[in-house]
């Protein structure tokens, strides 16, 4: 299967949907799948037509994590394992650093690195049939890299419970602990995701980029440093053409004309 077949691309009014398309392999994050996803994310970063990225999957499994069959064939190769986890970590960071918001559309099961993929996205909408787990502990391989994204989205005790037990978490429980934003009936999933993506895509792309970047940067700072940093960000943002247009449009009671600058 080619990279283009592994991940299909659809564009609609500023929304680009990237669909993991190996349902026969449970959309596992093989080296080839990770590289294809990395390439797509790199392309989206520079794509002026894309304002929002939706990450979806075909079949009944969103993503089962790493390809254990591929790993079993390389059990004696530390270099392969290191390359695999480094590439996976790169992809997760590409999602966080992408200058466009990323929404996970989750139908089915997301486990291990698949759960990490959901946690790495800026937003996540799940069907009520979706389930989540970090089950590495069950096979003697603790989900250490998925832990990075998981622990930055849910509280420590909830993250530790998932990591230590390896048990499945329902979609509604995932919403309760902050792993996903919304849970909807499976028939309403596409409509809900599209409405959310379209709402975000209607904003200034320049402003979205500023806000997303600042959000993740300030999370790593102390309170005073974060306020100093974001004050500077807002002052700089205020000089942008879109900010000035937005303020004038609001006061004039008209729709803003974004220039994305």
Automatic annotation (TrEMBL):
Isomerase: present as a keyword of the record?
A: no
Main role?
Answer: May play a role in fatty acid biosynthesis and insulin sensitivity.
Keywords, in A-Z order: Fatty acid metabolism, Lipid metabolism, Lyase, Transit peptide
The highest taxon in the source lineage is Bacteria
Q: Which GO terms describe its biological process?
A: fatty acid metabolic process
Q: What is the name of this protein? A: Enoyl-CoA hydratase domain-containing protein 3, mitochondrial
Which NCBIfam families does the UniProt entry name for this protein?
PRK08139.1 (NF006008)
The answer to whether the entry has keyword Transit peptide is: yes
Question: What InterPro entries does its record include?
Answer: ClpP/crotonase-like_dom_sf, Enoyl-CoA_hydra/iso, Enoyl-CoA_hydra_C, Mitochondrial_ECH-domain
């Amino acid at each position: 299967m080619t990279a283009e077949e592994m991940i299909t691309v659809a564009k609609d009014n500023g929304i680009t949907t990237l669909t993991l398309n190996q349902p026969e392999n449970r959309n596992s994050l093989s080296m080839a799948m990770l590289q294809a996803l990395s390439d797509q994310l790199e392309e989206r970063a520079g794509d002026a037509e894309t304002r929002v990225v939706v990450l979806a999957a075909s079949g009944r499994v969103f993503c089962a994590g790493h390809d254990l069959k591929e790993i079993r064939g390389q059990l004696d190769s530390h270099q392969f394992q290191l390359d695999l986890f480094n590439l996976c970590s790169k992809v997760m960071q590409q999602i966080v650093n992408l200058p466009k918001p990323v929404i996970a559309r989750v139908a089915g099961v997301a486990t291990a690195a698949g759960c990490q993929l959901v946690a790495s996205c800026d937003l996540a909408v799940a069907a009520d049939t979706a389930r989540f787990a970090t089950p590495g502990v069950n096979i003697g391989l603790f989900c250490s890299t998925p832990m990075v994204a998981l622990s930055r989205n849910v509280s420590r005790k909830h993250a530790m419970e998932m990591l230590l037990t390896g048990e499945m978490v329902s979609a509604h429980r995932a919403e309760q602990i902050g792993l996903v934003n919304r849970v909807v009936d499976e028939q309403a999933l596409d409509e809900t995701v599209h409405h959310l993506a379209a709402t975000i895509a209607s904003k200034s792309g320049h402003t979205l980029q500023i806000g997303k970047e600042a959000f993740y940067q300030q999370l790593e700072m102390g309170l005073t440093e974060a306020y100093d940093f974001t004050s500077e960000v807002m002052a700089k943002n205020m000089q942008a053409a879109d900010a000035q247009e937005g303020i004038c449009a609001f006061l004039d009671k008209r729709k803003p004309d974004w220039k994305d600058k």
